[in-house]
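Bug report (template v2)

What were you trying to do?
Predict the complex of my protein with heme D.

What happened?
Run completed; filing so the output is reviewed.

Input:
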Amino acid sequence: MRVPTVRRVNVVGIAAIFAIVLLGAACGYSPSSNSSGTTLQTGGADAPLSEEAAAGQAAFDQQCAACHTIGGGPLVGPDLAGITDLRATDWLHSWIIDPAAFAETDPDAEAIFTGGMPALGLSDAETDEVIAYLESTSEVEGSSAAPEGPRDLSAVEFDEASEIFFNRCAGCHGTLRAGATGPAIQPEDRTLEIGTTGIETILTKGLPGGMPAWGDAGILTEGEIDLLANFIQLDPPTPPPLDLTQITESWNLVVPVADRPTESQTARDWEDFTGVILRDAGQVAIIDAGTKETVAVIDTGFAVHILRSSATGRYFIAVGRDGRVTMIDLWTETPEIVAQVQGCFDARSVEASKVEGFEDKYIIEGCYWPPQYVVFDGQTLEPLVVHDILSPDINGKELDEVRVAAIVASHFDPVWVMGLKESGYVGIVDYSQPDFPLVKKIEADLFLHDGGWDHTGRYFITAANAQNKLMVIDVKTQELVAGIETGKVPHPGRGANWQDPEFGWVYATTHIGEGKLTLIGADPEGNPEHAWKVVREVEIPGTGSLFLKTHPESQWVWMDTALSNVEGENQQACVYSIEKMEMEKCFQVADHGTVVHFEYNKAGDEVWISVWDRDGEVVIYDDETLTEKHRITGDWLITPTGKFNVFNTANDIY
Ligand code: DHE
């Protein structure tokens, strides 16, 4: 019998919600005990189970019981009582092995396949064992009992549940629960059907592919799971708007421009500072990449997500999940906050104006909620304008929620380019025009997430992760030039650019949904025959990759497998050789936490890697020899995630 892999969820929680996208409300992982309280019969009429059926029962408990009961009524999936009378063994076998593939060949399977049930990765023998177990329960009667609906929540409980939802669920499922990276979980089309017990089971035990086991991982208490299970069967609260007046009220100009130094006051090479996000501490550590000394640890607010650099590199701009933007001056003797403002209630992206003549002039923040972007003064963060981005999607479907995903700043034109997640458009904002209008909306695909520039800075390449595609936008002509299927749930971060010995310039992504590095041709002028086509696919030992990185000086490409469910795989880094055009090696970076995200120093001869843990570390490797050079540790290094070198971030080097 296959030993089920240990289901591991980041102690830091939020990361794992990425992978919900893989399966939507798919089934597979289950409680080892019948904690859902449903009737799980074992063999009917007291008959002892055969060895095969007993093995099948264990597999059923592990892989199926989070979604199915036998006689306990429907959960996420149907009650399977009597299933072996209804379907032939061969049919069941093909279905369990790979429902999606089977649905393509069998009309009955096609008629019932909703996309929810995943291939469980069972072998033929294991599948036969599960079927033997199902046969052993053939006398169990199905239940038509309707799932238990929600109880009323008091106002205090409702508020508490809203906050838990915002912190743990909204990032993937959407504030209004319409789905994006994760599936839609609105009452009418999902959660009432699953019912309280089913939802509690899922929240406790998780689902394969990444829905975190919030309960088993000790992140949510039983009480919180009870609140959440009821809350998501009730209509979502309408989140409030945030207009320019309110945003301006939140604005805090800590150090006016006149009081700031006119030249750098530090003897250090501030262009080689690396900002490290300390996610759960709500802080940013600024480390001198030359000396490895920590220059400052700055409070930036709740779950800070990314840093970007102003065009000159003088300012770091942080954005947190609470929508707060923080501007940090690196020219003071010790880096310090000079301005702060809250442009959104929920946000993931921020960027500076970068074209000549507009250096350090403006900042844009993209909101997850409300559906808007906000432009600020690039020296003071004074709010200048707010623009609504709510619209129907590219297929004409009306939407209540559109979130701004990645934003990049062109180095050639006075524009910001941003992915509009739910609507599937790439928007172009012209910051040379009064009022900073959205001048163009280019149809791309659903749901846009992260992305970056090609090596020339002309093409914006972004993941449409629900379509398993990279979308390529020519920012010069403001047109979509390609949509390329790369693999299951591409997640490039900003991506990586290098010259492949055979295909010339390429752009690459890894994937959350499969262990694969995919290279696409990215040289339409020099190598037009390969442009915007998959030119190379390289297996990565481990799935759930979030980030990859290289540098013009490097012969390597580094990648993580941060969301792998296989014990230990989430603590490895893998290195691809550009020269040999193959994976060089994967190795353990740490024996704790989750290994995630890479950044080079300014010279491009060191790679910095985060060990995302309460006892966090930043491990620095020599990029030539691939050997460990330095390890930054300390009580203060709490949950390090993204790292951003000033020079590389200002110049979009990746
Ligand atoms: Fe991120 C980039 C959204 C979870 C670390 N993340 C981005 C971007 C978006 C985004 C839209 C691109 C910004 C840009 O370029 O302008 N991230 C989301 C989510 O919606 C999601 C899935 C769930 C959530 O609720 O936040 C999510 N992200 C995570 C994490 O769990 C990570 C690993 C840790 C954390 O901070 O919560 C994480 N995201 C990062 C990092 C980047 C990022 C480090 C920047 C990568 C880079 O090299 O530029």
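What did the reviewer find?
The domain at 6-13+148-231 is CATH 1.10.760.10 (Cytochrome Bc1 Complex; Chain D, domain 2). The chain has 13 helices and 33 strands.
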